[in-house]
Amino acid sequence: MIRRVVGAEVDPSALELARNIGIADHIMTALSERHLGGQMTFAQFRMLSWLYMQDEENKTGLLPSQLSRFQGVTPNTVSSLLHSLRKQGFIEQVSHPEDRRKRIIKITEAGRELVREMTPRQFRYVSGLLDGLDPEERQTLIQLTGKLIATVKARAKDCEAASAASALQSPLAARRPPR
To answer: What is the enclosing helix (H) or strand (E) of 123?
Structure first.
């Protein structure tokens, strides 16, 4: 049926694969959030874990833009996540030493304690979700999803470049202030 709608040149397995990846991600995220016991969302846990790892490595903290790239979300979403984590006392914002307009995000001791407490339990839980795959299948899936991510990122860069180029050619672009 898909071939009838979109044409014979489209491989329906690509659509099924994209759908399956999306469904697996959605279900795993929902189950992970439930496993966190309502203390925080999975996105908040990921952000706090990332801050913890960076703190262990270099103690310098991260800019919100760096967190945005890591999470793969917009700056507005990062701002919302940071607001929640700050209200709970898990992070703090400090002034950048060289540019007072910038804010550096650092994990607090309460945040470190939470990550140390929750991470082993969360990792065991996520690992358990993948029990249906033997070690060889997991390695294959890691390689294939890595290849998929690289392909999607390359397409995203092409889209960004095309978008930037069209903005330069747009008559409205001349009226926009530079970023």
So the answer is: helix 109-129
